[in-house]
């Protein structure tokens, strides 16, 4: 989704803004632009396409400036053209604005402004902000911003500069992320921390409704009630190297390979010596007794992690769980009240669908728990309780290490609930936790089969359609395998519960169509073999994922990838690894931009 970077200081604003925008490329974008104050005038330069188009243009037409804003745009209102790219000017070019999010009432604002004589040149919702700022401008930047914010509805993060205030940068946020970077004699704004890491590790995360005036040695933050506030200063622990590729050709493969280390970190931090789970007294026994319904609410890959979480909580804590897609939840008149525990899973902590579902639950009195990867993210701050996953920065659009960390965290949460409810014995708990502790090493084992996976990916790269099937827990992993393949290889795949195929979808099975069969659940092996035979009878090409000791599956499969033996309940943490690698290599062999697949954004901050 769009990225914002802003700078005020004594350095080269163009260099800082372009560097910052390059670190936000992972969010997905289709055009880029900058607005810089030079000799008391604002100069805007913007180009559709990759950031390099803008960089090359600025090399040929240099701008010397120490204050400016930059933007990478992911089109929502209007085509990805130069004109619709941000920043946007007011008509007299005295104001420039960059914006992430959506101004929901922009049509009525636009009509009002047009009646007042303002002319619009773009199709964007953002242009109304530049004109509104011009309309309300009274010589005082913060006062003017306050008046603008009272007019707009929707979600936003803004950066604003004015030609009469060449040492000031304004920003505001609501339901869209924005951080202020604190430097020495220079300050920054950005949509996400990686944009700032080269310059500073100290940041303020703005609260919802906050707005700020920033000069090079002073930051004034106001809250939604217009009160001057002091926000906590956070020190970011990530290194720039952690947020960059570190020798790997793509972030995705780096992140796949980071899984053993990040899972180990979660295990080390959460499992105490006495085998209890350290979630910082998240819930008391009494609080749990009052909970009648548990929901897990999330989108995409995080939703798939939620499905594994549901399985774990039901099996281990013997509590019924519903998993819901966040974008549907809000509109389904959900059965939520003060006896509901609503768990929101989100890597970025900024997904608007998930955030809005959380707000709905809070309104109805539920206890909200966020499981997120980003400290200080909106979802983490809005939730009543938070568990942070320890995946480290995830940059590739396709989520991998965040998923396995979410699944592991949900498993540990299930054990935590099981302890509170006494639904798990000490022996069962030790067996399960010891198995979870062995997962990082077992994932490293799977990496040894990479050549075999590459070979299968070579075969898959030319197909147009495929299926992922499984039973029980395997079906939940099949959904994630299919999503991963779709989003980065552009091959149309669907996931089905194996037993459901015969109720319709089997009509699509024909000679040579690849079907990835997840068959890791020992009690379901015979059923899986029958399903494979049904598929083989229709000449499908079977690629099976199975536990190492289930050798009999090799006889009915065309290709087989083994995962190390594990408990059935923990197999999803292993069986997803070959599926991630298969998607990665298929995408690579098809020549696709693996980390930034078309039409997708890392952080989806629109509804
Ligand atoms: C995963 O590969 C996706 N790109 C996407 O489905 C993602 O998981 C989803 O948008 C949710 O994001 P979140 O975890 O940041 O909330």
Provide the gyration radius in Å. Answer: 25 Å
In oligomeric terms, what are we looking at?
Answer: single chain
Structure summary, number of beta strands: 25
The tally of structural domains comes to: 3
Which residues form runs of ≥5 with pLDDT under 50?
none
Give me the CATH superfamily of the largest domain. Aminohydrolase, N-terminal nucleophile (Ntn) domain
Task: Report the span from N to C terminus.
Answer: 12 Å
CATH level 1 name of the largest domain? Alpha Beta
Overall mean pLDDT score?
Answer: 92
CATH architecture heading of the largest domain = 4-Layer Sandwich
* Spatial shape: globular
What binds here, in terms of ligands, is:
2-deoxy-2-amino glucitol-6-phosphate
Biggest β-sheet: count, sense, barrel?
Answer: 8 strands, antiparallel
User: What is the CATH third-level topology name of the largest domain?
Assistant: Glutamine Phosphoribosylpyrophosphate, subunit 1, domain 1
| Distinct helical segment count | 18
How large a portion of the residues is in β-strands, by DSSP E?
15-25%
Alpha-beta content class: alpha/beta
What share of residues is helical? 25-40%
Within the largest sheet, what's the order of strands?
3-2-4-1-10-9-11-15
Explain what this protein looks like in three dimensions.
The chain is α/β, with parallel strands linked by helices and 607 residues long. The longest helix has 22 residues, at 426-447. The chain is globular, with a radius of gyration of 25 Å. It has an 8-stranded antiparallel sheet with strand order 3-2-4-1-10-9-11-15, covered by helices on one side. Strands 5-6-7-8-12-13-14 form a 7-stranded antiparallel sheet. Strands 17-16-18-19-20 form a 5-stranded parallel sheet, sandwiched between helices. It has 3 domains: 3-243, Aminohydrolase, N-terminal nucleophile (Ntn) domain (Glutamine Phosphoribosylpyrophosphate, subunit 1, domain 1); 260-424, 3-Layer(aba) Sandwich (Rossmann fold); 448-589, Rossmann fold. The relative contact order is 0.09. 36% of the residues lie in helices and 23% in strands. The model has no long low-confidence stretch (mean pLDDT 92). Helix 16 (473-489) links the parallel strand 21 (465-470) and strand 22 (492-497). It starts with a strand and ends in an 18-residue tail after the last helix. Helix 9 (300-317) packs antiparallel against helix 16 (473-489). Bound molecules: 2-deoxy-2-amino glucitol-6-phosphate (AGP). The site of 2-deoxy-2-amino glucitol-6-phosphate has 16 residues, from helix 9.
């Amino acid at each position: 989704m769009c990225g914002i970077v802003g700078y005020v200081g004594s350095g080269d604003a163009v260099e800082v803004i372009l560097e910052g925008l390059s670190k936000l490329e992972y969010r997905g974008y289709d055009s880029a632009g900058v607005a810089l104050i030079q000799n008391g005038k604002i100069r805007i330069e913007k180009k559709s396409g990759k950031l390099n188009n803008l960089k090359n243009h600025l090399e040929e037409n240099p701008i010397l400036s120490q204050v400016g804003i930059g933007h990478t745009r992911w089109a929502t209102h209007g085509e990805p053209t130069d004109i619709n790219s941000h920043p946007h000017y007011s008509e007299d070019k005295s104001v420039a604005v960059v914006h992430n999010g959506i101004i929901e009432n922009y049509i009525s604002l636009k009509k009002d402004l047009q009646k007042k004589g303002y002319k619009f040149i773009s199709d964007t919702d953002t242009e109304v902000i530049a004109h509104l700022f011009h309309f309300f401008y009274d010589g005082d930047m913060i006062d003017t911003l306050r008046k603008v914010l009272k007019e707009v509805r929707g979600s936003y993060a803004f950066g604003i500069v004015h030609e009469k205030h060449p040492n000031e940068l304004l920003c505001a946020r609501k339901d869209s992320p924005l951080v202020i970077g604190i430097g020495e004699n220079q300050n920054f704004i950005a949509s996400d921390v990686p944009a700032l890491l080269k310059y500073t590790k100290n940041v303020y995360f703005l609260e919802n409704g906050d707005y700020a005036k920033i000069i090079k040695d002073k930051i004034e933050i106001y809250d939604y009630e217009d009160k001057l506030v002091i926000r906590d200063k956070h020190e970011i622990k990530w290194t720039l190297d952690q947020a960059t590729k570190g020798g790997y050709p793509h972030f995705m493969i780096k992140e796949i390979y980071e899984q053993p280390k990040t899972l180990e970190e979660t295990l080390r931090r959460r499992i105490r010596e006495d085998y209890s789970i350290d979630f910082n007294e998240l819930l008391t026994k009494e609080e749990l007794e009052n909970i009648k319904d548990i929901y897990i609410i999330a989108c995409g890959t995080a939703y798939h992690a939620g499905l594994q979480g549901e399985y774990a909580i039901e099996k281990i804590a013997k509590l019924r769980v519903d998993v819901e897609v966040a974008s549907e939840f809000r509109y389904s008149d959900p059965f939520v009240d003060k006896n509901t525990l609503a768990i929101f899973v989100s890597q970025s902590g900024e997904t608007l669908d998930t955030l809005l579902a959380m707000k709905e639950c809070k309104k109805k009195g539920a206890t909200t728990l966020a499981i997120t990867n980003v400290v200080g993210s909106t979802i983490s701050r809005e939730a009543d309780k938070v568990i942070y996953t320890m995946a480290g920065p995830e940059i590739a659009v396709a989520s991998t290490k965040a998923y396995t960390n979410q699944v592991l965290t949900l498993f540990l949460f299930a054990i935590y609930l099981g302890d509170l409810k006494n639904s798990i014995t000490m022996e069962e708990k030790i067996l399960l936790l010891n198995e979870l502790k062995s997962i990082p090493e077992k994932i490293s084992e799977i990496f040894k089969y990479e050549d075999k996976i590459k070979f299968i990916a070579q075969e898959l790269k030319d197909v147009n359609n495929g299926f992922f099937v499984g039973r029980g827990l395997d079906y939940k992993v099949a959904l994630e395998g299919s999503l991963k393949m779709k989003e980065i290889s552009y091959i149309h795949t669907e996931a089905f519960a194996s037993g459901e195929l015969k109720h319709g979808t089997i009509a699509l099975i024909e000679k040579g169509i690849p079907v990835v069969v997840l068959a890791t659940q020992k009690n379901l092996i015979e059923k899986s073999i029958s399903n494979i035979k049904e598929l083989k009878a229709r000449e499908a090409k079977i690629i099976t994922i199975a536990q190492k000791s289930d050798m009999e599956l090799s006889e009915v499969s065309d290709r087989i990838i083994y995962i190390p033996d594990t408990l059935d309940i923990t197999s999803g943490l292993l069986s997803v690894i070959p599926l991630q690698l298969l998607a990665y290599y298929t995408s690579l062999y098809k020549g696709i931009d693996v980390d930034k697949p078309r039409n997708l954004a890392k952080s989806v901050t629109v509804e």
